[in-house]
Amino acid sequence: MEKEKINLLIVDDEEQFLASISKSLKLRDFNVIAVNRGEKAIEAAKKKSIDIALVDLKMPGMSGEETLKLLKQEHKWMEVVILTGHGAIDSAVECTKSGAYSYLQKPCELNSLLSALQDAYKKKVMNKKKIEEKKMNELLNISLSSSPREILRKLREMDQGD
Ligand SMILES: [Mg+2]
Asked: Whole-prediction pTM value?
């Protein structure tokens, strides 16, 4: 997996849509992992470090909402964008309350999709940086005031948060 590309997980049960959207995004330098079930998305995210997930709301088996919740629970830096068909806007809005970054209505223009993905990625990077900065400050304070043993204990504590 190339580091300079954004790792994008796409989950949608409509195979044709999945194939065409994956192709378009691969051409735009995304590293795409495409799956057709929520269950498979959870598995894929365990194997590879995903930056953003694009999740269809209506799927057989595990729903998009359930997939979103599990992904966010297990990967706190991952941002999720929900895809929804007509008539499911209310559920999509609910998803943003459960931690989705945003939602898009299908069929969506490639440009709106790209800008949603870019924004979601920006959010991910900013959140991570903020936390890292906070950790650096904590670390600095610990180092000034504690015994070496205490420093190690606190470092381990901080390390376990991720
Ligand atoms: Mg669907």
From this structure: 0.83
